[in-house]
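Deliverable D4.2, example record:
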Amino acid sequence: MRSPVVMLIGCASLMASQIFYMDLDQAVWLADNILVVEVSHVVHFPMDYLDRMEYTFRVLEAVHGDDVGEGDFLVFYTFDLPRSYTDTDGNEVWESPFVTGSGIEMSVEEGDTVIALVYSPPCDASRPAELVRLEPPGSLETIMGLLEGTSPAD
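Output generated by the structure prediction step:
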């Protein structure tokens, strides 16, 4: 049986390294374009204190924003990871990032259909767009309600 002190230390380090996700009703307003897309390619670039994801999307439907041309386009997403540093007193201090994503950005696969909230209009493979957030297709009604100033439950 583990002692309560060991269990508390374990819980404290888990809480210290958590990630805080922005609510959808805040993130939706950061996007210039909201698109229903099919993921045609995913590349994960792990780094020390962040992960970078690059996706190639094929637009199925433009829900909100500028007209988007046909064809595939490149998008990137940067995901901050929890990190720690040692303060001047020698104590380890954890930083828990606040991210715009929903949490599914790291788990989508080729062939998935998702809703992409994109900061700027997508161009082409030479200039990738920056992703605010990905949402599952079931979130479309909620997103439309937010854009229209209503709630799907109304």
